[in-house]
Amino acid sequence: MVPGPKAAYNFTRCKVGKKLWRPKLEFDLSDPYCRSTKFSYEPLHDEHLAHFFSRPNNLNYLLKVDLITSDMNVKCSLRDYNEYRKYLRQVHADYIKRELRKRDRLIVERMALNFAEKQARKEVKKLKEKEKVANERQRYNQEQLLQVELRNRKLKERARKTMKRFKLIKTIKQEERKLMNNKREKRTEQIRQKNKIAAEINRRKVISTLIDMRKADKARKKTKDKRLLNMNQKKQKDIEEKWKRKLQFQEKDIERRKMILQRIDNRRKKFIDSYNEKINRETAKMKRILDNAKLFTNCYMKRHLLDGRKLICCKKYCKSNTVLV
């Protein structure tokens, strides 16, 4: 702490030996790194050093150095003063918040109590209504029990009457059954007689039908035999006719083939004769050409020799030579 000049404003926070920073009542994590307020240690505000600084020698020295005022207030700088004011404002704001929370809690508790009272009143009303309903149900059940007893009595009386009626009905039914049995026996006897008569009639009909069936079977067999004979005869006739037709067709075919072969032989002979004549003509021509070629070669060879003209025997050459000369 540096002493200030004389006749200047003095900023103080607390007296000597009193704490600046008060302990917080609640655990606060709003400023864990102490950036808003720096809780620096100052020995003049230490409680444990209050006895030391209260000595007269030390007080005179502090007054002389101008660290405290005559009222025992510790001087401070403007920055420290503003920080302390900020700290006090924050403490006051925390106190106000705490009080507001208490009020809110009280309000919530009052609301809860009021709500609980209302719920209790509603439950009381419901219980009263339930009691009324239970009483009404008891009355209703008692009335129903009385009605059930009356109904049971009526039903018992009806049951007695019905039992009497059933007994009468049973006796009547037994008599009716006896009559029905007698009628059934009579009907069964009549039906038996009718069945016997019908059986005899059916037996006679069956016998007559069997006789007719045998006669019809014999007639059918005869007709079948005749039909088979006729069919076999027709088949044999058809086979013979087919065989004759085939023979006639084969004979005609053989004659036609013979005629065709004769014509082919005649044509072949004519072709061979004409071909031989052509060959003979061509051979004669070729012989003439060969003879002429031989004469020409002999004459040509002799013409180029000495005294070759005397040796030439070709008349054609002599004629041509005379003409040239």
Task: Please characterize this protein's 3D structure.
With 325 residues, this protein is mostly helical. It is 78% helix and 3% strand. The protein has five helices and two strands. The chain has helices at residues 50-53, 56-65, 78-303, 308-311, 315-324; strands at 11-15, 73-76. A two-stranded antiparallel sheet has the order 1-2. The longest helix is centred in the middle third of the chain and has 226 residues, at 78-303. It is flat, with a radius of gyration of 83 Å. The protein starts with 10 loop residues before the first strand and ends with a helix.
Mean pLDDT, nearest integer?
82
Give the ordered list of helices and strands.
EHHEHHH
Query: In which order are the strands of the major sheet placed?
Result: 1-2
Rg on CA atoms, Å:
83 Å
Shape annotation = flat
The percent range for helix content is: over 70%
| Secondary-structure-derived class | mainly alpha
- Distance between the amino and carboxyl termini: 176 Å
- Stretches where pLDDT is under 50 for at least 5 consecutive residues are 317-325
Question: What kind of sheet is the major sheet?
Answer: 2 strands, antiparallel
Number of strands: 2
Number of continuous helical runs: 5
Q: What amount of the residues lies in strands?
A: under 5%
Coiled coil: 110-192
Organism: Cardiocondyla obscurior
Keywords: Coiled coil
Protein name: Fibrous sheath-interacting protein 2
